[in-house]
Every structure is written in C-alpha cells, then in structure tokens.
Design a protein that fits this description.
The complex is a heterodimer. Chain A is about 35% helix and about 20% strand. By secondary structure, chain A is α/β, with parallel strands linked by helices. Chain B has 2 domains: about 35 residues; about 210 residues, Orthogonal Bundle (MetI-like fold). Classes of the chains: A alpha/beta, B mainly alpha.
C-alpha cells in the first residue's frame, strides 16, 4: 500500500508457514513496514498474527516466500511480560543488552534512560512479583528499548490489562514511538487500539492467514486520548470491523 | 489490609484523562502517577499473628505430648518388665542415655562421626547430582542413558551392595560415605533436572531471540529457574544423607563409631535406653539439616520465589 521511498524496515513477500503438524499458519502473506511506520495487525484468533512476528524475529522459519528485516536492532514485546522473576526491574531491563554483549557503562546509561522513558525510575530494585501488570509490561518494554530498536515487534502486549491501563500505555507507547522513531509491527485483538496507534491497520483472514485489507489511518501524530471519541475515529474502527466480519 | 496486597493490587489511574497536547510538550518522561505502584504484600494483624504462632508451635507441641503419652503407655502398660528393654520409658532414656556422663560422651562422639559422614556424603551428592542433572539437561541422550540407572540405583537394596563395597573400600568411613551418597543422590538429580527444564518456553524465546549460547542460557535462565526445585530436593536429600550414614554405619563398623554403629551394638546388648538415646540424637541431626536447608532455601530464593500460600 504505502510505497516507501527508502528500503522497508520489514518486508514479508509471499510468506507461507506450515507447521510440522500439518497446519498452515500463513499462506502467501505480503506485508511491508516502512521505517518509522506504525503498522497494526488484526485478525481472528489463530490466523497467524503472532507467527508473523516470530518469523520476523527469526524465532520461527518460513516454508516458502521471503522475509527481509532491515536491521539487527530488533525489539520484541511478548504477550506476557516474560520478566525473569529472580531479576530486579533494572536487571531485567539489562537482559537483552547483556545477551548482545553491550559495554557495561553504555548498558547502565541506556537502562536508566529506558526506565525513565517508561516511567519506572525509582522502581529499579523491585522484583517482578512486586509490580502491577501494567508496570511489568513497562519493564518488558524497557528491556527492548535499551537496544534502541529500529524495528519493534509487539505481540498483543496489552491484551491482559484492563481498559484504563491499556489506554494509558497506548498513549505512552505513541510518545515513545515519536521519540525513538522505530518501525512498529503491532499485533492486537482490539480494533480501537489498532486504529489509535497506527499509520496503517492490516486485517488478516482466518487460518491460513493472509492480508485481506490494508487501511491507512490518516490522523497525524501526536495523537491525543480524546481522538478515541471522535466520529472519524469511530468510522475507521467501523471500517476495520467490517473487514473482520467479512471473512 | 489482609487482602490489599493480593486482591486489589495497584491501580493505574492518572494522566489518562489529562493527557492532552500540553502534556506531550514534555515527552521525555512518562510520569508515574501515585496510583501506579505496587502495594507491598502484607497480611494479617496482631491477632492473626498470634494465632499463626499458636498453630505453628502449639500444634506440634500437642502432637509431641500425644507421642510421649503413647510411648509411656506402650512402655509401662503394654510391655512387661522383661520386654521393656525394647522401649524404655522416656525419662529412663533421658536419664541413662543423655544424663549419664559415661554414656553421653560416646554419644556426642558418635554424633560427630555420623555428622561427618552425613555432610561428606551430602556434599558429594550435591556436586555429583547437580553436575549429572546439568549434563542431562544439556543433552537428551545423556538423560536417556543415565536416568533409568539412577532409578535402578535408587531401588537396589544397600544390603546387597555391602560385600561389593567392603571389597573395594574396606569397612571404615569410605563405604559409609558411599552408602550416604547412594541414598541421598537421587532427589538432587531428579529435582535439579526438573528445575532446569522448568523454565518457560517464552523465557527461552528471549534467549533464542538474541542467540544466546547454551552456557549463557544455562547460567542466566535454567540454573536460577531450577533453584527452588533444587532446594526442595536438597532438603529431602539432607534427611536421606543422615539415614544413609546410619545405615552405612550398621554395616561398616571399623574405625570411629557412629550413631548407627552404636545402635547396632546396643541392640545386641539390649541396652534400650542408650539405643533410644541414639535414635533421638540421629533424628535430631536429621531435623537440624532439614531446618538448615529450609533456611538456606529461603535465603537463596525466598526473595523472588513465593509458592502460593493460603
């Protein structure tokens, strides 16, 4: 849809994924994310949305087609916060940087930055079980932010949170996106969340998943929370929902 | 207060409704509203604490009273004076076994020997058990090759091994330690292995994502994840090591006498008081190591590992 002048940050062309058990998760899926773009993927359960992210990150391989990721600096936030329970917030934020063998001083500076960005300054020494669900997701976000990712993958990160928390984290995520200018691929079940966050919303068909609609969201950034209650916003949500129902 | 930390939890309320354009002029920070912080888990008032103390200490004491009562009944009523050597009354055990100096000194010396065998055996079990479990966790074929034999070793009657052990290791301390190791080894292996394999798939993904090597994965993920299970195994093994040491002393009697050596001697001499004093001392040693490892476990993983309690 969007024809980027620069090389795409992320490109799936004709990606097919068959699992060993015989299920086909993705069939000939095409998707492109330009640098700095925020693309959300919505679709029925089990349509291979998460598989898309696992493929982009190299956790899963593909059966056919091709995937191009324009960077090695990849952020990934999972459905659960997946924090290591024995590590404090700042130790958890350090994990990816440790695994990437980032220099210690650099690591420390970036952890402080990332924790400040997600609003966890002052909670460095807390353990995951002492945090609320929202704070755990923030810590999980910080863990990737430390790497200053160019491409950021989100796998329904706020799905388990209550509506209020989710909306606030959406606002904060957009602010972070504005600051760090990463390309985002965001999987969600919530149409409103997808429309609120994205420059484009991609609708996928039931399994085997393929892209059936690609809707450009015309709102500029920054977006205020009140945007959610405008008629234009409702109309776009309606359009996305209609595509979801059509499959 | 009793449920505040667990049920209500922290609430995330704050600038959601006030997040207007003006707020985005300072986008460097995401302010944490006061509501968005975790409440410390606290429960129970003073009354509940007293009640808990009562059940923690009062109930075991009550059971102890019942045991002593039954002991007296068996000793004084069920057994006649010719049979009483089998279970002398508690006060006689204290008097003869513990408060008679010429009996007390060998008892303490035997305790020292048994403790030495126990701790040596336990240390070897831990080193051997943990490294075996690590090897099994790293290669499935090692697990397939070794695990059945661990189970077999666990089920072999020690009695059957005594001629073999004495042939190679004599009758002194070494074979006793080996018996303790054979008995204490298995729970450490099985629990550590279980623990090493217990880390979530999604947590493994974090390491796969960044192409972590197997040792990084072991050290930063599997090993810490295994600690709670490992300590549970250690507590069981610590008690078993005491039993192993005593069983070993029953069969291998050369050199320093341990509690088991003495038990076997007192049994044949029908010295009931000293026999039971040795039994109580042995179980005291078992309780001590059990409590010690419980404490160590809380020190090591209690900070983050909290099994669900009611």
């Amino acid at each position: 849809m969007t024809t980027a002048t620069r090389a795409p940050a992320l490109r799936f062309s004709g990606v097919t994924k068959k699992f060993a058990g015989g299920t086909t998760a993705l069939a000939d899926a095409d998707l492109e994310v330009a640098p700095g773009e925020f693309v959300s993927v919505v679709g029925p359960s089990g349509c291979g949305k998460s598989t898309l992210l696992r493929i982009a990150s190299g956790l899963d391989d593909i059966t056919a087609g091709s995937v191009a990721v324009g960077t090695k600096r990849l952020g990934y936030v999972f459905q659960d916060a997946t924090l290591l329970p024995w590590r404090t917030v700042s130790q958890n934020a350090a994990l990816f940087a440790e695994l990437e063998k980032m220099d210690k001083g650099e690591r420390r500076r970036r952890i402080a930055d990332a924790l400040e960005l997600v609003g966890l300054t002052g909670f460095e020494k807390h353990l995951p079980h002492q945090l609320s669900g929202g704070m755990r997701m923030r810590a999980s976000l910080a863990r990737s932010l430390v790497l200053d990712p160019e491409v950021f993958l989100f796998d329904e990160p706020f799905g388990a949170l209550d509506e209020i928390t989710r909306e606030r984290l959406n606002d904060e995520l957009l602010r972070t996106h504005q600051l760090r200018a990463f390309a985002a691929l965001f999987v969600t079940h919530s149409v409103a969340e997808a429309v609120f966050l994205s420059t484009r919303v991609v609708v996928m068909s039931p399994r085997p998943g393929r892209v059936i609609a690609d809707i450009t969201i015309p709102f500029g950034y920054p977006r205020v929370p009140e945007l959610r209650y405008t008629p234009e916003f409702a109309a776009l949500c309606g359009e996305v929902s209609a595509h979801l129902r059509s499959v | 207060m009793s449920t505040a930390g667990t049920e209500a939890g922290p609430t995330e309320s704050g600038p959601a409704e006030s997040g207007t354009v003006t707020q985005q002029t300072d986008p460097e920070r995401m302010p944490v509203p006061p509501g968005d912080r975790a409440a410390p888990a606290e429960r129970g008032g003073a009354g509940a604490a007293a009640l808990r103390l009562g059940t923690r200490i009062g109930l075991p004491l009550a059971v102890a009273g019942v045991i002593v009562g039954v002991w007296y009944v068996i000793s004084d009523v069920v057994l006649n004076s010719y049979q009483r050597f089998m279970l002398p009354p508690p006060h006689r055990v204290l008097e003869v076994g513990f408060f008679t100096w010429s009996n007390f000194v060998p008892l303490v010396q035997a305790l020292g020997t048994t403790a030495q065998v126990t701790f040596t055996g336990l240390a070897i079990s831990i080193a051997l058990g943990v490294s075996t479990a690590i090897a099994m966790s790293q290669a499935k074929w090692v697990e397939n090759a070794l695990y059945p034999w661990m189970v077999v070793l666990q089920t072999v009657p020690i009695l059957a091994l005594t001629p073999f052990l004495s042939f190679f290791f004599g009758f002194a301390l070494t074979p006793r330690v080996i018996v303790a190791v054979i008995i204490a080894f298995f729970p450490i292996v099985s629990n550590t292995l279980f623990g090493l394999q217990s880390a979530d798939v999604s947590m493994h993904d974090l390491f796969t994502l960044h192409k972590a090597g197997r040792w990084t994965r072991l050290w930063k993920l599997q090993f810490p994840a295994a600690l709670p299970a490992m300590f549970a195994g250690l507590r069981v093994s610590a008690g078993l090591a005491v039993i192993g040491a005593i069983v070993g002393e029953f069969f291998f009697k050369q050199g320093q006498a341990g509690l088991g050596t003495n038990m076997s001697v007192y049994t044949s001499l029908t010295e009931g008081e000293q026999l039971w004093a040795s039994v109580l001392t042995a179980s005291g040693l078992g309780i001590a190591v059990f409590v010690f490892f419980g404490w160590l476990s809380r020190r090591a993983v209690g900070r983050w590992y909290q099994p669900r309690r009611r």
